[in-house]
Design goal:
The structure is a homodimer. By secondary structure, chain A is an alpha+beta fold. Chain A has helices spanning about 30-40, 80-95, and strands at about 10-15, 50-55, 65-70, 75-80. Chain A is built from 2 helices and 4 strands; from the N terminus they run βαβββα. In chain A, strands 2-1-3-4 form a 4-stranded mixed beta sheet, with helices on one face. The longest helix of chain A is centred in the middle third of the chain and has 14 residues, at about 30-40. The interface of A and B includes residues 4, 11, 61 and 74 of A.
Chain lengths: ~100, ~100
């Protein structure tokens, strides 16, 4: 049984481009990822394979970013502030309801 | 329609630890990821959202690594050489047959 090793496996694109093209790190995505990781830990959701918050390289949705993808569902989000991250956590990762307004 | 944006979204853990604990980068996982990415490109599978080969931070399966996870299936692998990577590509990513001997 390796399917769903993590109930929710969340990848934050933290890629930094240096060539002037848009990239997720232009939006401080690493800091948002750290915020999410700490919040998940504080909520007790980092245990027992419930939620894993991961760094990822370029997810190649740069123009729509900063991008997050939640697997195994394969639901993609963009976000602009901590409130957006909080809503993805409280709605999707805790209550299983994807946040329609943030989907890309 | 954002589900399955990529038919196969493959994450290679490329985390480097400096504290003596095992980590995937001890096994040159970044180089294996580059090998896989180039091979997928050469096979024409990088186009049209067929296969995406991504860098990831620590996937937290360090002791069983170097670790790969293929989403949306959520199938995990470990590997030791290029032949293993070739087999994951030819069997799983091209023919849809997970490689049982490499699963973790």
């Amino acid at each position: 049984m390796n399917e769903s090793y993590y109930r929710y496996h969340v990848f934050f694109c933290t890629n930094q481009r240096d060539n002037g093209r848009p990239c997720c790190q232009d939006h401080n995505s690493s800091a948002f990822r750290s915020y999410a990781k700490e919040k998940i830990k504080a909520l007790g959701l980092a245990k027992n394979h419930q939620v894993r918050i991961n760094i990822a390289g370029c997810l190649n949705r740069c123009a729509q970013g900063p991008a997050i993808v939640v697997y195994p569902e394969g639901i993609w989000y963009s976000y602009t502030n901590h409130k957006d991250i909080d809503e993805i956590i409280s709605e999707h990762l805790i209550n299983g309801r994807p946040v329609v307004r943030l989907r890309i």
